[in-house]
DNA sequence: GCTGAAATTTTTGTATACAATCTGAATACA
DNA sequence: TGTATTCAGATTGTATACAAAAATTTCAGC
C-alpha cells in the first residue's frame, strides 16, 4: 500500500475514483488486512491527496460493504466469516443461473472463437501448473461468458460478489490447479455454448460453480482464513 | 423536497447520512424525477448544509445505483426501463427462494403470532380497500418473513432491490387491492410457516412473487412509467 | 440576422481551516 | 493500589476558499 504510487494528474477523472479503486484493490488483495482502521490523514498523505476526495472514496467503499463506519471513529476494513463466503458464492451462482438463457440467446461465433483463445492460454497455464496465471485466465473466461448476457443489473450483482471472491483467490489458487476436472469442464462449456445447448450448460454450470464454491470453502477452512 | 426540513443538530450522527437518506427517499418516491440533475450548491442550500457532506451522500447514492455521475457535470437521477424492473424483481425473487430453508429453520411460534397480527391489520385494509395502507403492511409482512433468515448478505441484496420496488409501488398500489388472491396467499403462507412446510412454502412463495412481478410490470406498462 | 470566438458565469474538483468529539495518559484523591 | 477526573493530542465532521472545467452569454465581424 505505502509503495503503491499513482499520479492523479495523469488521469482525466476525479482523484476520488482512483483513490477508491486503489483502496478497493488493496483491501481485496489483503494488503490492508481485515480489522485495519483507515485513518484519513494517514492515507491521504500516502496517496498524496487531501482528505476530501479520500473521504468520498471511503463513502463508496462503505456502500460496497468493504469497510464499516463507526461514529467519530472512521472506517474499519470488514472481516469475512465462512458464512459470508458461503453466501457470496450462493448469490453469485444463483445469479449466474438466471442469465444463462440470455447468454445462449446472444452468443455469436466470434464469441466462441474468443473463448477458445482464452482456453488455449489456460491449457498452457494448466500444463505449467502456473496457478497465478490460471486464476487470471479463469476470471477472464467466466467474465467473458457472463458479460454475453444483457442483464445489466444482474451482472452488477454478479460483479460485486466476484470482487469479494477475488479476495479468497490467494487462498484457493493452489486448489485450482489440482482440480483439473474444472479445466476439462471449461472446454465442455464452450462446446455447449457453440451448440446453444441451454439445458446442457445449465447442468454443467450448476455443477461447476457448486464445485468451485466447495473448493474455496474447503481451502479457506483448511488455512484458517 | 424543498419543504422537507430537518435539523441536523438534533441528530447524533453525520449530516451526510441524514442528507443521504433524505435524498434517497426523495428519489425513490419520485419527488426528484428521473433525469433530474442534482446541482450541489442548490441542494446544499435547500438542506442547509455545506457541499462537503452533500457530496459524500451523493457518492453513496452513486454506489447504490440511484444516481449516475458524469465527469464535470455532477450527478443525474437514473431512469428505469421495463427491463430494469424485470431484473429487479428477478433478483429479489431468486434471493428470496434461497433463504426459505433458513427461514423455516428459524421461525418461532412468537414469529407466527407477530405475522398473524400483521395479517389482521391487512384484513382491515383489504376490506376497506385502502391501497396505501395495504402497501405498507405488505412490505411489513414480507420484510418480517425475510428477516427471519440469518443470511445477512443475501438479505442485503434483497433489501437493496426492494428499495427500487418501492419506487413503483405508487403505480402498482391500485392493482394490489384488486388482486385479493394475493391476500389469501398471505394467510396460506403463515399456515405453511407454522407447519414448517418447506416444500409447500417454496411452491407458494415462487407463485406469489412471480404474480407480484407480473402485476407490477403490467401496471407500469399500462401507465407508461 | 447569423457565425464563431472571447469573456463571463456556473458548477464541479480539491485543498485547507476550524469545530466537535473521542481516546488515552497523567494526575488527584480515596 | 485502585479509581475518577481532567486535559492534551489525535481524529473525524463540516464549512469555506480557491482552482479547473464546462456551459452560457456577449459581441465583433460578416
Outline the structure in words.
The structure is a homodimer of 225-residue chains. With 225 residues, chain A is mainly α. Chain A folds into two domains: 8-77, Orthogonal Bundle (Arc Repressor Mutant, subunit A); 82-223, Up-down Bundle (Four Helix Bundle (Hemerythrin (Met), subunit A)). Chain A is built from nine helices and three strands. Chain A has helices spanning 15-28, 40-46, 51-64, 82-106, 109-127, 131-146, 152-178, 180-194, 198-223, and strands at residues 37-38, 67-70, 74-77. Chain A has a three-stranded antiparallel sheet. In chain A, strand 2 (67-70) and strand 3 (74-77) form a beta hairpin. In chain A, helix 4 (82-106) crosses helix 7, helix 5 runs antiparallel to helix 6 (131-146) and helix 8 (180-194) runs antiparallel to helix 9. The two termini of chain A are 21 Å apart. The structure holds a DNA duplex (30 and 30 nucleotides).
Amino acid at each position: 500500500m505505502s509503495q503503491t504510487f499513482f499520479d492523479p494528474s495523469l488521469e482525466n477523472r476525479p482523484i476520488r475514483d482512483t483513490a477508491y479503486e486503489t483502496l478497493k484493490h488493496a483491501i481485496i488483495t489483503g494488503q490492508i488486512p481485515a480489522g485495519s482502521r483507515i485513518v484519513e490523514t494517514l492515507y491521504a498523505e500516502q496517496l498524496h491527496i487531501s482528505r476530501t476526495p479520500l473521504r468520498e472514496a471511503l463513502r463508496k467503499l462503505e456502500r460496497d460493504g468493504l469497510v464499516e463506519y463507526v461514529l467519530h471513529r472512521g472506517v474499519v476494513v470488514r472481516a469475512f466469516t465462512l458464512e459470508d463466503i458461503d453466501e457470496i458464492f450462493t448469490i453469485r451462482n444463483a445469479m449466474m443461473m438466471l442469465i444463462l438463457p440470455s447468454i445462449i440467446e446472444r452468443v455469436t461465433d466470434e464469441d466462441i472463437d474468443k473463448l477458445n483463445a482464452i482456453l488455449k492460454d489456460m491449457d498452457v497455464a494448466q500444463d505449467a501448473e502456473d496457478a497465478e496465471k490460471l486464476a487470471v485466465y479463469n476470471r477472464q473466461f467466466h467474465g467473458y461468458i457472463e458479460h454475453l448476457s444483457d442483464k445489466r443489473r444482474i451482472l452488477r450483482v454478479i460483479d460485486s460478489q466476484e470482487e469479494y471472491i477475488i479476495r479468497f483467490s490467494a487462498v484457493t489458487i493452489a486448489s485450482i490447479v489440482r482440480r483439473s476436472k474444472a479445466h476439462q469442464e471449461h472446454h465442455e462449456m464452450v462446446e455447449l455454448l457453440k451448440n446453444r445447448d441451454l439445458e446442457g450448460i445449465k447442468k454443467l454450470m450448476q455443477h461447476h460453480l457448486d464445485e468451485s464454491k466447495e473448493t474455496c470453502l474447503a481451502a479457506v477452512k483448511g488455512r484458517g482464513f
